[in-house]
Amino acid sequence: MKKIFRLLLIIPFICFAQTNKQDSIKVDLSNPHATVYTHLYFLQLDSYQPQKAAQTILGYSEEESIRKAIKIKKVLDGKGLFVDLNRIPTNPNYKDTIGYSSYKRYVLFPQRMPQIYIEKIGEKWYYSSETVAKIEALYKEVFPWYVQKIQNIIPVSGHKKILGVELWQFVALLIVLVLAYFLLLIVKRIAFYILRKIQQQITKNTNFEVDKVLKKLAHPLSLLVVVAFFDKVFPSLQFSLDVNTWVFLALNITKTVFWIYVFLKLVQVVMRIYSEFTERTHSRLDDQLVPILHSFFTGVVIVVGLFRLLILFGVDATTMLAGATIGGLAFALASQDTVKNLIGTIMIFLDKPFHIEDWIEAGEVVGTVEKVGFRSTRVRAADTSVYQIPNSKLSEIVINNKGLRLFRRYNTNLGLRYDTPPELIEAFVKGVREIIIAHPETRSEAYNVEFTGFGDSALLVMVNVYFKSLAWGIEQSSKHRLHIAIVKLAAELGVDFAFPSTTVTIEQFPEKKDLLPKYNTNTDRINKAISKVLEDFKGEKFEGDT
Fold first, then answer.
1. Binning pLDDT at 50, 70 and 90, where does residue 416 land?
2. Which domains are delineated in the chain?
3. pLDDT(433) > 90
4. Where does the signal peptide begin and end (predicted)?
5. Could you give the CA distance from residue 537 to residue 488 in angstroms, rounded to a whole number?
């Protein structure tokens, strides 16, 4: 009995002490931290004094200020925005330096709710006039018109709690999930239909491979719509701040992951369409650009997505960007060669000095271009050996692209014996000209066959021709056919090719015969010989003939 009596005596003192404790906490608007703390503290259940919380709003009546202060807190709670008081600055002259100029303001949630912020007016900090003006619209956005209607029709039994959650909230959550499922099915079909129409408008055809990618793209797009629907409706269920905080964190993470997936698939679709375009172009360098661009854009999407996820987990964006900038600068300085090669790669794709499978001469390297990568270009020489040339060097040196020639030029000198009669020289030159005109792989309008000079051991006949085909194999076959025809012409005319020799003149004896060849310069015989060689030449079939 004495213990009960003592307890009854102690209770008034405890209540009095608690009341004194609440009264001892005064309204403080001297800095951002104090203003936000005053607003939230006096709207808690155990310290509920809305008239003090309303003092954080300037320029309105007490009743109107109380209503707006309560709505600001409800909006923050409804969106699951937990205010970390430890991160709010206590500097009375704090300035927000984000933007072109500095302002004495502090934004509570710059990424998710930039409309709600406090600013310094005079010597005190208040919720900004913009925040107070927009709070009604924000409140209606978070808690639509039907929320109050639902509250009015919920029976008393619906407010019974199970595991701290009211029964009507369980039922409403189930209804929202069912609606979200049907919305997913409908939006998925609509998204695929729209994407396919856009793709057909761009490419003017139907590609089954692209259709498969579009179906994969339509799925995350429909999921994003469902997440947006859930994000819009969930605050209406009026769960506690703790529940809302975790739910909206999960929704934002899900949304970010889906957006990463969407952009990855979008990159895949765009690269697929671009690859179809490059297949229709003459240049094969564009084909090589497809995997490089695909890798680059994929990396950009992943990096930006990871930055976004880190921001959701509370990492400061400014600090992260500053660290990334400094780290990127340090990385660039440490890998100057890699950066130079990357710039060289960009210049190669912009200037296009060669294409894939072009035969080039780059310094001491001669061969066929097989691949252009991020860092180097692979060139295969005639002996099948492979050269890896850094793109930084390749973009600076002189490149002779033989693959861009309009024709393949062939120039040689034929040496005739010094004792060849002028009539046979003229006949031989005429015959070679006729062979070139009759050759299907040479340009008949551009050639030169002339007696150009006197060599050390031969009379020189220059032969300059242009082969039509740029393929190395066909060029060699065309040379073979031309050479065989010239050798046959010389044999029919009785013309000998000279070689380095020394002639010794001695007195000839009557019984000794002259060693010099006997030339037949009869005009009819010469014409018949040329005609015979030309007929044989036209009747032969060589590689490269169509």
1. very high
2. 24-142 (no CATH), 161-334 (no CATH), 337-404 (2.30.30.60), 408-539 (3.30.70.100)
3. yes
4. 1-17
5. 9
